[in-house]
Design goal:
The complex is a heterodimer of chains A (498) and B (646). Chain A is mostly helical and 498 residues long. Chain A has 21 helices and two strands. Chain B is globular, with a radius of gyration of 30 Å. The chains are: A mainly alpha (498), B mainly alpha (646).
């Protein structure tokens, strides 16, 4: 084993290794240079992320586990990581100006984001329950700190504490689930786990199902699916805005990828058991988010409910576990992330002399003071509520199409009806912007990055209709690879040899 | 040529409608006029081709709807009936277009007006060239729309808006009948294509339609339903109330739409369906009765009105009644003949009246006119021609067609034919009377206009008089010239198969052999009517008021238009408003809004608030929810999958 640990043998994981070194290098650099290095670190981070993406593109991919079965670098993981790289880069772009405007410049910020990103990368690649847990904690701990990052704000500190305690509870659930699984099967590796679970019967199977349920509950917390979502609005509201943006963009995707790998790998044999649970989580998320979102006054809380509801729609695609279903999930999430990036970029513009405004009513009269901003926001809101021909419509359409194709009409109906209810709170924002009496204008100068994100996001939402299947092949290869079980390929090869 | 004739008005409408503002009034007027004149020339060429050389045809444009057994096409049916209508439409329309250039010279929205006129012409051409009922319905609704737009053209006038809405709504009743008729035809024949329908009529003469447990003769039901549609468009008694009000529109509109073309669409429809009506004698009886009664009642009303345009409007209604009872006695050729001559002399009268109104600074009440004949002599002469044609004086167009109709009615030898004949004779007398009452009140005697109006009286410009002269030519010569082709010896060659008359119903043939007194009676009535008008209004102007006192109840009945408006107001308008209010307040507001949008949204808000309250902010609540959820999920999955283990 030892002589295999050469740099060449690790080539599939070069991206992760590079990120880890970046984190450490940044840390040393930051300690020496102090908080003034934040700007430089952020730019270096974006540059580094670009390099990471290059490494990812050139990484040799395969279903063969690496590092003694701990990790795997396959097409599915690579693609999810590519999305994550973009999400991380956008988070950097959105955060920098905000940090300087509000005067809370700390060099740890870019490092923590990078560290969380590393955790996510490992989560996506995890092929062993131990590496899975380690990666999850690496990501979570970084997120806890980020939530409480604005430490002289009581709200931010409260959000961090809440997130930490509830996160600890969910970690407990996950660990308990893992121990149950280990107890009944005696293994932790995904492949072996899958093989053993497939042959289990009777009380042992029940035990494994229990373990899986605990695991799923813990992960439901991470993707903030109802009823494990309670932390989300509070943390979204309490954390400072770039952090919230980061929360909305990256971690859920990683957690969902993690969940998916578990469900189609080790737990494939238990599909009838977890299918019901996913369906329940999905329906609850859609319904709860739609109704609870109606009464929100704070934009960040609203975005929290919006993200909960959208996770519900994304889970709809997972329920079926067909290639098309998972394709729809990824397709939906990609479109959603692009819109959310734009929305947060607009929200970040709502500040006056370092004071941030985050109530919905603060948007009043935006159309008078900042017409371009208002129109951008309006288009994004229309897109979020799924109005054709904007991009959000296509995401919803593909998901519902797949649900209907699988003859789950009730699910489709719930999805459509909740999206009608949810449309209210998106449209209300437009109403406030265009029809309510204007307040003072916000500070001028939104920065290149922010403007860029808004422009890209809006253009994407508007012109997606011209190439409505642009992202589908990417989502499809991701889903296809996920659903290609390595075990079967191996047996198939053996049969050919014989 | 066929396409140019039909589609030029559409092109000019679209062009002027879209770009009228930017190309200016002059260009708009020129384009629309040029377009319609091209169309008229093509129509005349078609007349030569189709009728004189017996070359009728059907041109396929494209398929329209193709669902199951139901298929409809866009196509042009260019046969004799169509070409006659096309000529009437395009020639009168061309005159009106040119006339409007002068008449509307003080208006602000000239381009819009011209565009509407072209739209109307196109829709009307679509109506008459259609080869199936659906395309006909398209044209039918198109002319309805154009009529609505043009009646309400002066939309700053309250009364114009009300009149346009009235026209639209009353026509809806008729359209409903037409739509039902189309559906009934599809039910019986399985097609809405004219050729298919007409070829199969004989196979369906015994068919019945079952409705509410009763059986009705199918062809009669279809005939009656189509006739209801025709009644709406052609302002027959019962659905006529919109026509007098429609005079709120500019006078060229009244001439084109509400005298010459659109109102004759009903006549055209029945004539088009002559192959079907021939096998539905009961429907024809109803047509005759309604037509005769309309001719009579409208004439009585026309005798008492003072608004110059309303007199002509009621006269139009009365003449349409003539056409319908001609149809009813199977004298389709005579009806079409009168349709054509009437189009010329009635358009002439209307445009002449418009010329008078123009001269009198928009005064329409005849009591404020008088003594105009020296001041506007050209208009006076032209009005004389129109009046003589309307009154049915020999050599003028109306004489030939009206006499033919009356003779046909007499020759029908049925009780309703007889009724229509006598009603027609009475109406002929009244027609002559009210026409000369109009002439004398307007042009003779002393001027009763205010001084400042008198000073401004002037003859209309040439651009208005020229179209009048064209129409006057038609009013003089069209009767004598076309007599042979429409109703004379050459009629079978003229119409070929476009009109269908059963041999035993050939009343036109019989009409040529009626007693001499029948032939001369209409003329006697016409002349005596004119004479009486002179006695009443020129020689002894006190007589009308004496008569008014003696026949007080009758006069009131006629003057108030037989109280149709009042009766409709009480029975339909008030009830409809009451019902509407009921449905609005109770149904829509309380029930649907209450339970639906309002109720659901407030329910959603309540749910949202309740869910929001669960978001307490306390960690132990959150943790509690998580733990309870895990336990719940576990129990659920456990009970669902492993029920057997316990």
């Amino acid at each position: 084993m030892n002589n295999m640990l050469t740099l060449t043998a690790l080539q599939p994981l070069w991206a992760e290794l590079f990120m880890a070194m970046m984190v450490m290098g940044f840390l040393i650099f930051g300690v020496f240079k102090g908080d003034q290095s934040t700007r430089l670190l952020t730019f270096l981070g974006i540059l580094g992320l670009f390099f990471v993406s290059v490494l990812l593109m050139n990484a040799p991919l395969g279903k063969e586990p690496l590092l003694g079965g701990m990790l795997v670098q396959d097409v599915f993981g690579r693609n999810v990581k590519l999305i994550l790289v973009v999400a991380l880069a956008v988070s950097y772009m959105l955060s920098l100006k905000y940090l300087y405007d509000t005067g809370f410049v700390k060099f740890e910020f870019p490092i923590l984001i990078l560290l969380a990103g590393l955790g996510m990368f490992l989560m996506v690649s995890a092929h062993h329950l131990l590496s899975f847990y380690m990666a999850l904690e690496l990501q979570s701990l970084s997120l806890y700190i980020l939530a409480a990052f604005h430490r002289n704000s009581a709200k931010s500190a409260e959000a961090g504490i809440k997130y930490f305690i509830l996160g600890a509870l969910s970690s407990g659930l996950i660990l308990f689930g893992i121990s149950l699984l280990y107890g009944f099967t005696g293994v932790l590796d995904y492949t072996q786990l899958g093989q053993i679970i497939a042959e289990l019967e009777g009380i042992e199977k029940t035990g494994v199902v229990f373990g899986m349920m605990f695991l799923m509950a813990g992960l439901a917390f991470k993707i903030s699916a109802v009823p494990f979502h309670m932390w989300t609005p509070d943390v979204y509201e309490g954390a400072s805005l770039p952090v919230t943006a980061f929360f909305a963009l990256a971690p859920k995707l990683a957690a969902l990828a993690l969940l998916l790998r578990l469900l189609v790998g080790p737990f494939e044999a238990l599909v009838t058991d977890w299918q019901m649970v996913i369906m329940f989580l999905s329906v609850m998320s859609m319904v709860w988010a739609a109704f609870a979102g109606l009464v929100q006054k704070n934009l960040k809380r609203l975005m929290a409910y919006s993200s909960i509801g959208n996770m519900g729609y994304a889970l709809l695609g997972v329920v079926m576990l067909t290639t098309e279903g998972v394709t729809a999930t990824f397709f939906y999430l990609m479109l959603y992330l692009i819109m959310v990036a734009g929305v947060f970029a607009v929200m970040l513009c709502m500040q006056r002399d370092g004071v941030v405004f985050k109530q919905i009513e603060d948007l009043a009269g935006l159309s008078k003071n900042h017409p371009k901003l208002a129109y951008a926001m309006a288009l994004l809101m229309f897109s979020m509520s799924g109005i054709p021909p904007l991009s959000g419509f296509f995401g919803k359409m593909i998901v519902f199409q797949e649900v209907v194709a699988q003859e789950m009409y009730v699910l489709a109906l719930v999805g459509v009806l909740t999206s009608v209810v949810a449309a209210y709170y998106y449209l209300r924002i437009i109403k406030v912007m265009f029809f309510d009496a204007p307040d003072m204008p916000y500070s001028k100068g939104f920065g290149v990055f922010r403007n860029g994100v808004i422009i890209v996001s809006v253009l994407f939402a508007v012109f997606y209709v011209l190439r409505p299947d642009a992202l589908l092949p990417f989502a499809r290869t991701t889903a296809t690879d996920l659903l290609t079980p390595p075990a079967i390929i191996q047996t198939h090869d053996i049969q050919l040899d014989n | 040529m066929d396409y140019i004739a039909v589609f030029t008005p559409l092109v000019t409408f679209l062009f002027v409608g879209l770009f009228g503002k930017s190309i200016g009034d002059k260009a708009s007027q020129f384009i629309t006029c040029a377009g319609i004149i091209v169309s008229a020339v093509c129509s005349v060429m078609l007349f030569n081709d189709v009728i004189l050389h017996a070359n009728s045809r059907i041109l396929f444009l494209s398929s329209w709807i193709d669902v199951g057994t139901f298929s409809v096409e866009w196509s042009l049916r260019i046969d004799q009936l169509t070409v006659v209508m096309m000529n009437v439409i395009t020639i009168v329309s061309a005159c009106v277009h040119v006339y409007s250039v002068g008449y509307m010279s003080h208006d602000k929205a000239k381009a819009r007006f011209m565009a509407y006129l072209s739209l109307f012409t196109f829709a009307m051409l679509m109506l008459v060239t259609s080869d199936n009922l659906l395309q006909l319905f398209f044209g039918w609704e198109g002319v309805g729309l154009a009529s609505y737009l043009l009646i309400g053209f002066w939309n700053h006038k309250e009364s114009a808006n009300a009149a346009s809405m009235k026209a639209f709504i009353v026509n809806r009743v008729g359209d409903f009948g037409l739509a039902l008729g189309i559906m009934a035809i599809f039910m019986i024949f399985g097609s809405v294509n004219f050729s298919t329908i007409f070829e199969n009529v004989q196979a369906h003469t015994g068919d019945v339609i079952k409705f509410l447990g009763h059986e009705f003769h199918a062809l009669t039901v279809i005939g009656l339903l189509l006739f209801i549609g025709a009644m709406g468009k052609s302002a027959q008694l019962g659905l006529h109330t919109w026509l007098p009000d429609a005079m709120e529109g500019p006078t060229p509109v009244s001439a084109l739409i509400h005298a010459a073309t659109m109102v004759t669409a009903g006549v055209f429809l029945v004539a088009r369906f002559s192959p079907l009506y021939e096998y539905a004698p009961d429907a024809l009886m109803v047509v005759t009765l309604v037509g005769g009664t309309t001719a009579l009642i409208a004439a009585t009303i026309a005798m008492t009105q003072f608004d110059i345009k309303r007199v002509i409007a009621y006269s139009t209604m009365s003449q349409l009644g003539y056409m319908f009872f001609a149809l009813g006695v199977s004298a389709y050729g005579a009806a079409m003949f009168h349709l054509m001559t009437h189009a010329f002399f009635k358009a002439l009268l209307f445009l002449g009246a418009g010329s008078v109104i123009h001269a009198m600074s928009d005064e329409q009440d005849m009591r404020n006119m008088g003594g105009l004949w020296t001041k506007i002599p050209v208009t006076y002469c032209l009005m004389w021609i129109g009046g003589l044609a309307l009154a049915g004086i020999p050599l003028f167009a109306g004489y030939y067609s009206k006499d033919m109709i009356l003779e046909s009615a007499y020759a029908d030898h049925t009780w309703f034919g007889e009724y229509a004949f006598w009603a027609g004779i009475a109406a002929a007398f009244m027609t002559a009377f009210y026409t000369w009452r109009l002439m004398i009140l307007t042009f003779h005697g002393k001027s009763r206009a205010p001084i400042e109006v008198q000073k401004k009286i002037h003859e209309s410009p040439k651009i208005m008089l020229f179209p009048l002269m064209v129409l006057a030519m038609g009013a003089v010569f069209s009767g004598a010239y076309f007599y042979d082709g429409f109703v004379g010896e050459g009629r079978t060659h003229f119409w070929e198969s476009s009109l269908h008359v059963l041999p035993e119903n050939d009343t036109i043939e019989n009409a040529h052999h009626v007693p001499e007194w029948v032939k001369s009676l209409p003329l006697v009535m016409g002349v005596s009517g004119i004479a009486l008008a002179y006695v009443f209004y020129l020689f002894f102007p006190v007589l009308p008021s004496i008569f008014r006192k003696i026949f007080m109840p009758f006069h009131l009945l006629f003057y108030r238009k037989w109280f149709f408006d009042e009766i409709y107001n009480v029975f339909f308008v008030k009830t409809a408003r009451g019902l509407g209010k009921l449905f609005w307040k109770r149904g829509d507001k309380a029930l649907i809004d209450g339970l639906g949008p309002d109720g659901l949204s407030s329910l959603s808000h309540r749910i949202g608030r309740r869910l929001g309250q669960m978001q307490t902010g306390f960690i132990y609540h959150y943790a509690f929810v998580m733990v309870v959820s895990v336990v719940g999920l576990l129990s659920w999955v456990f009970l669902r999958t492993n029920g057997g283990i316990l």
